[in-house]
Amino acid sequence: MKRAIVTGGAGLIGGGIIHRLLKAGWDVASFDLNASPGANPSIICDVSDERSVAAAFNKLQWDTLDLLVNCAGRKGAHMGSVDTLSLAEWRGMIDSHLTGAFLMTRAAVPLIKGHGAIINIASTRAYMSEANTEAYAAAKGGLVALTHALAVSLGPNIRCNAIAPGWITAARDLSPEDHKQHPAGRVGRPGDIANAVLYLAEAEFITGETITIDGGMTRKMIYTE
Predict the structure, then answer these.
(1) What does the H/E/C string look like for 27-92?
(2) What is the spatial distance between Cα 47 and Cα 100, in angstroms, rounded to a whole number?
(3) Closest by alpha carbon to 194, among 66, 10, 1, 23?
(4) CA gap 185, 200 in Å, rounded
(5) Which residues pair with 31 in a beta bridge?
(6) What is the CATH number that goes with domain 3-219?
(7) Could you give the strand order of the β-sheet that contains 3-7, starting from the edge strand earlier in sequence?
(8) Distance of alpha carbon 116 from its chain centroid, rounded?
(9) Which residue numbers are catalytic?
(10) With pLDDT > 70 as the criterion, what percentage of the chain qualifies?
(11) Is the distance from CB of 45 to CB of 54 less than 8 angstroms?
């Protein structure tokens, strides 16, 4: 049976990934600050903290690993004007997404003894922005760059790809306009990302890529008169 670690498993996208992998017959562990229903085991871990990551791997006690999904990170892209953004706020965002992915990858690589995969969950905010989202954009952009660097360094035995989700939600009270602005006709769901994770986990000739999953929004020009 294949084994996967998903960070951020208590969140919307991370939880969807865990559910999809379990359905496909994988053993799945979650590393998160909160308990992750469905994962076995669910380990409390701060992925931005070196000692916490080491303790989580010690508690897991797996000697092999097939897939690492780096999905953990602080929410809330809007953090105020860059001239008032504190260094602590900046580092907190960068560390939770980018440093966490580095620490998890460093610990996971020795366990991937055959062929395996690493998938980083980035964001379309790596390519496009709203105002006052500098720290989040930088963190997600860093994940895209980390992905292709790892693909070159770790290949051919370990493939590394990223997914850049757009608007993903489980909400059911969205307006028709929310859906219609997407060329695909609807807002994204956690399962859309989870299906892509499963695909990339088994796609032997894809590495170093970032796949955008946003219903076509980054391809749609919007002008206001």
Answers:
(1) EEEEEECCCCCCCCCEEECCCCCHHHHHHHHHHHCCCCCCEEEECCCCCCCCCCCCCCCCHHHHHH
(2) 5
(3) 23
(4) 24
(5) 7, 43
(6) 3.40.50.720
(7) 42-44, 27-32, 3-7, 67-70, 116-121, 158-165, 210-213
(8) 17
(9) 136
(10) 100
(11) no
Residues 6+ apart with CB under 8 A from 45: 7, 31, 32, 33, 52, 53, 55, 56
Exposure on the CB side of residue 127, measured as CA atoms within 13 A? 16
Q: What is the pLDDT of residues 36-54, one digit of tens each?
A: 988 999 999 999 999 999 9
pLDDT-derived band at 107, boundaries 50, 70, 90: very high
Which pLDDT belongs to residue 225?
A: 64
Cα–Cα dist 14/71, whole Å: 6
Least confident interval from 13-22, 81-90, 104-113: 81-90
Query: Which positions ≥6 away from 175 have C-beta within 8 Å?
Result: none
The string of DSSP codes covering the chain is --EEEEETTTSHHHHHHHHHHHHTT-EEEEEESS--TT-SSEEE--TT-HHHHHHHHHHH--S--SEEEE-----------TTT--HHHHHHHHIIIIIHHHHHHHHHGGG--SSEEEEEE--GGGT---TT-HHHHHHHHHHHHHHHHHHHHHTTTEEEEEEEE-SB---S---HHHHHTSTTSS-B-HHHHHHHHHHHHH-TT--S-EEEESTTGGG------
- Identify the bridge partners of residue 74 per DSSP, sorted by sequence position: none
